[in-house]
Design goal:
- The chain has one domain (17-115).
- It is 74% helix and 0% strand.
- The protein contains four helices and no strands.
- α1 packs across α4 and α2 (48-68) crosses α3.
Length: 126
């Protein structure tokens, strides 16, 4: 394999794996939104329901677009914001082991935003 092919494969692996794993956190939030949003953290003072909607966008909608590689760089932004809020606000007083996951996703999606989707994506189709 040429280096470009390996890079394209690596971008696809990073994009798909991080997005799929993020969906495992977002789908329960989507279910919670459909049932009841009471008690969800409200870090911006906009209410539990709007905060939960923003979390669902950042953990379900945007990761789905990143997963398929559609408007990947833009779609990564809501995930980055959501993980920054989780790491630097929601889990600020937790031990590092608890907030580490948010930071791993944060940096992974920053990389995805910087490099884009690669060839094996909707964005990469010609």
């Amino acid at each position: 394999m040429k280096n470009n092919n390996l890079n394209d494969l690596a971008f696809a692996l990073l994009r798909v794996s991080f997005s799929a794993m993020m969906l495992t956190h977002g789908i329960p939030k989507l279910n919670r939104l459909l049932e009841s949003s009471s008690g969800f953290p409200d870090p911006f003072g906009i209410g539990s329901t709007p905060s939960l909607i923003l979390a669902v966008i950042g953990e379900v909608v945007a990761p789905f677009f990143v997963l398929i590689g559609f408007k990947t760089r833009i779609a990564a932004i809501p995930v980055i914001i959501t993980m920054a809020v989780a790491g630097f606000y929601i889990h600020i007083n937790d031990d590092f082991g608890t907030k580490e996951k948010a930071f791993l996703y944060l940096f992974g999606f920053i990389v995805i935003a910087l490099v884009g989707a690669g060839k094996h994506s909707v964005d990469g189709r010609k």
